[in-house]
Design a protein that fits this description.
Elements lengths: L1 H16 L8 E4 L11 E7 L5 E6 L8 E6 L5 E3 L1 H12 L8 E6 L5 E5 L4 E4 L4 E4 L1 H9 L7 E6 L5 E5 L3 E5 L5 E6 L19 E5 L6 E5 L7 E5 L2 E5 L10 E6 L5 E5 L2 E5 L4 E4 L11 E6 L5 E5 L5 E6 L4 E6 L12 E5 L2 E5 L8 E5 L5 E6 L23 E10 L2 E11 L4 E7 L2 E7 L5 E5 L5 E2 L3
Parallel strand pairs: 29-35
Antiparallel strand pairs: 1-28, 2-3, 3-4, 4-5, 6-7, 7-8, 8-9, 10-11, 11-12, 12-13, 14-15, 15-16, 16-17, 18-19, 19-20, 20-21, 22-23, 23-24, 24-25, 26-27, 27-28, 29-32, 30-31, 30-33, 33-34
Length: 462
C-alpha cells in the first residue's frame, strides 16, 4: 500500500511539473531581418545534423544569376552565404560574369551541406567553410578517367550516403568516409543529356533512394514526356501514364516510411508499392488540385501535398486510415492566401509563401493533442485576390469572447468556461483547446457550436 501511495504521489507530481502541450501557433521569421530582406520566394530547403536549416531563395522577378543561400542556425539567427559561394563560382570558372544560379541543396547524415549550381558545379560545407568538389576527381575514382563532365543532380539516403549524378557517367555515391564509388551506371534508358531542352535551358535532374527496396528513382524536371525512371537490381524501367502514372510531367518524388514511392505530377499524385500504381486526383480524392508541385511526409507518416491554387492550405493523405484531410495554414491575421513549400524539420512544420512580404517564413510548432480555435468576428469575410495580403479595413469594434466546453460533471453535461478574452482587430483566438465540443459566444453575435476533433487549428468565422 505504501508503494502504491508513493507511486501515485510521484505520478501526480510528474503531471504537475511536466510542461503542458502547446497548441499549434504560427510565427513569422524574416531573412536576416525585415528591413534588409530582399528575397520573397524560398523554394529549396534542407536541414543538417546540427539542426541548422538551409534554403535557396530568389525573388519572383530575379534573373538566372540572382538568388541567395541562407542558413537559419539552430540558435535562431540568419546567415547569408551567398557572397562566399558566388566568389567560389568565379574562382572555379575564372569568369567574373559566370552564371551563379543555385538549384539544389542537401544536408547529408554525416554533417555536410551540399549545394549544386545550374551549370553543374558542386560545393560542400563542412560546418565551418565551403569548398569546391572537382568533378574530375570524382570521375577518376569511379571510372579511372579524368573527365570534364558536370554534376547534374544531388540527393541522399537515410543511411548517411550522398549521391551526385554526373553527366555521361551515372550516379556516384559518397560514403561517410569521403570515398566515391559508382552506384548507378549511365544508361540509354535514362539519358543524362535529356536535361537539355530545345530552348537551350536545363531541366534539373532529381534523384531519390528507396531505403526499403534499395531502388533508385529519377526524373527530369520541366520535360513534358519524361515520366519516372527506376533503377532496380541492374535493370532500368521507365514509368509513364501507360504504366499507371498519373502524369508524365513529374514535379516531385519521395519515399515514405512504409517503403512506398510517391510521384507528384501535373495530373495528380501516384503511389508505387513495389508492383502496382495507385493514383489520386481531384475527382477521386480530396486532393485540392491536380497540379501537385511538392510533397512532404510528417512525423505521423502522413503525406502533405502542395498544389497550385490550394487557397491557403495543403491536402493530407493518412495511409493508416486511408483518409484525406485539409490543413489550413491561415491564421488570425489571415496573411496566407497560398503556400509555396512545406518542409518538416524535426517536430516543426515550415511553410513558405510563393510570393509576397519579403521572404516571410511561417513556422508551426507541430502538435496533435491541443488545438487553436480562431476566426473573424467582424461579421463579414474580407475579400481577397490570389496572393494578396489581407486588405485594410476600417477600425472594428472590440467584442468580448467566451468559449465554453461541453463537460460531463457528475453524470450531467454542463458548459464550462474554457477561454475568455476580447477580439483584436476583428479577430479572436483561443489556444490549447483539447478534443471536444465547444460553444463560442461573441458579444453582439449569434452563438455557434463547434466540434474540435484533433490538434489542427480550427477556423470559425462569424
Amino acid at each position: 500500500m505504501k508503494k502504491i501511495l508513493i507511486f501515485s504521489f510521484c505520478l501526480t507530481l510528474a503531471l504537475i511539473l511536466s510542461p503542458k502541450a502547446k497548441a499549434d501557433t504560427w510565427t513569422k521569421q524574416y531573412l536576416v531581418d525585415e528591413a534588409t530582406a530582399q528575397r520573397n520566394y524560398l523554394y529549396k530547403g534542407t536541414q543538417d545534423t546540427s539542426g541548422n536549416k538551409w534554403f535557396i531563395a530568389c525573388s519572383n522577378t530575379s534573373s538566372v544569376t540572382d538568388d541567395s543561400v541562407y542558413e537559419y542556425t539552430a540558435g535562431g539567427t540568419w546567415v547569408n552565404h551567398t557572397d562566399t559561394i558566388d566568389n567560389l563560382i568565379v574562382q572555379v570558372t575564372g569568369d567574373s560574369n559566370a552564371d551563379k544560379k543555385k538549384t539544389l541543396i542537401y544536408g547529408d547524415k554525416s554533417g555536410n551541406t551540399w549545394l549544386m549550381s545550374e551549370t553543374g558545379l558542386l560545393f560542400m560545407y563542412n560546418g565551418s567553410s565551403w569548398s569546391n568538389v572537382s568533378v574530375s576527381s570524382v570521375t577518376q575514382q569511379i571510372s579511372g578517367q579524368n573527365s570534364g563532365a558536370s554534376f547534374s543532380g544531388i540527393f541522399g539516403d537515410n543511411q548517411g550516403n550522398f549521391y551526385a549524378i554526373i553527366g555521361d557517367y551515372g550516379t556516384a555515391k559518397r560514403s561517410s568516409s569521403g570515398t566515391w564509388t559508382l552506384a548507378v551506371p549511365d544508361s540509354s534508358v535514362f539519358d543524362l543529356e535529356t536535361r537539355r531542352l530545345s530552348t537551350g535551358s536545363y531541366g534539373r535532374l532529381y534523384g531519390a533512394y528507396n531505403n526499403s527496396s534499395g531502388d533508385f528513382w529519377f526524373y527530369v524536371e520541366y520535360k513534358e514526356t519524361t515520366g519516372a525512371y527506376r533503377y532496380h537490381g541492374g535493370d532500368w524501367t521507365h514509368f509513364t501514364t501507360d504504366n499507371g502514372l498519373a502524369g508524365n510531367l513529374v514535379n516531385d518524388i519521395i519515399d515514405d516510411s512504409s517503403g512506398n514511392i510517391w510521384v507528384s505530377t501535373n495530373n495528380g499524385a501516384s503511389k508505387f508499392n513495389g508492383s502496382d500504381w495507385t493514383t489520386w486526383n481531384s475527382t477521386n480524392s480530396d486532393l485540392g488540385n491536380d497540379s501537385v508541385k511538392q510533397m512532404s511526409q510528417d512525423n505521423l507518416g502522413r503525406i502533405w501535398f502542395v498544389a497550385n491554387g490550394e487557397n491557403g492550405g495543403t491536402s493530407i493523405y493518412d495511409s493508416s486510415s486511408n483518409s484525406w484531410s485539409y490543413y489550413s495554414v491561415k491564421n488570425g491575421m489571415d496573411e496566407l492566401e497560398n503556400i509555396g513549400r512545406v518542409f518538416f524539420f524535426g517536430n516543426d512544420v515550415w511553410v513558405t509563401l510563393p510570393s509576397g512580404d519579403q521572404g516571410i517564413f511561417i513556422i508551426l510548432q507541430n502538435n496533435d493533442t491541443q488545438a487553436t480555435l480562431y476566426g473573424q468576428a467582424e461579421g463579414t469575410i474580407v475579400t481577397k485576390t490570389s496572393f494578396d495580403m489581407l486588405k485594410k479595413k476600417a477600425k472594428v469594434k472590440t467584442r468580448k469572447v467566451t468559449v465554453s466546453r461541453r463537460t460531463l460533471v457528475k453524470k450531467k453535461w454542463k458548459w464550462q468556461k474554457a477561454y475568455s478574452g476580447k477580439t483584436s482587430s476583428g479577430w479572436y483566438k483561443a489556444l490549447n483547446l483539447s478534443v471536444g465540443t465547444y460553444k463560442v459566444q461573441i458579444q453582439g453575435l449569434k452563438v455557434k457550436t463547434v466540434n474540435i476533433a484533433n490538434g489542427d487549428p480550427y477556423r470559425l468565422n462569424f
